[in-house]
Amino acid sequence: MISYSTLGTNDMQRAIRFYDPVFAALGGERTTTSDTWTGYGRNGDRGLFFLTRPFNREPAFAGNGAMLAVLATERSAVDAFHAAALANGGTCEGPPGVREGMDPVFYAAYVRDPDGNKLCAYVRK
Q1: DSSP assignment, residue 88?
Q2: Distance between CA atoms of 77 and 33, rounded to whole angstroms?
């Protein structure tokens, strides 16, 4: 139902340095690069996620309650996502682990990117 998602950034090059290894850990890659748009996809998809500077030219800021969640293929990918995020300027919002009370099992990690956007990588096994 959702075609693509965008998050704002105040520094495209900093965001690229963060997202390239973070999405690579989940099997994704950068598919589009420009001064105003950078896109990422997986398995041949040409941009399901985009970074952009806000169109109103105001500073980008994280939305309260907003989060982008990315499906991983296995727990080790969730772990790699979390490690890559922290190694490239992100902050931990919840380390990799099983979140209790979920069926099927929900293994997830939560981070914030350098602009403060909240991300989750998860697998349900």
Answers
A1: T
A2: 24
What is the C-alpha to C-alpha distance for residues 100 and 21, in angstroms, rounded to an integer? 28
Backbone phi, psi, residue 111, to 5°: -140, 170
Q: Residue 90 — very low, low, confident or very high, per pLDDT cuts 50/70/90? A: very high
Interatomic CA distance for residues 14 and 22, integer angstroms: 13
Closest CA to 105 of 114, 96, 118: 96
Cross-strand partners of 51: 7, 38
Q: Residue with structure tokens 């941009």?
A: 47
Split at pLDDT 50, 70, 90, the class of 44 is confident
pLDDT digits (tens, 9 = 90+) for 60-84: 998 888 999 999 999 999 999 999 9
| HSE toward the beta carbon, residue 15, CA cutoff 13 A | 25
Residue in the block written with tokens 């996502």:
81
Do residues 72 and 28 lie in contact, with contact meaning Cβ atoms separated by under 8 Å? no
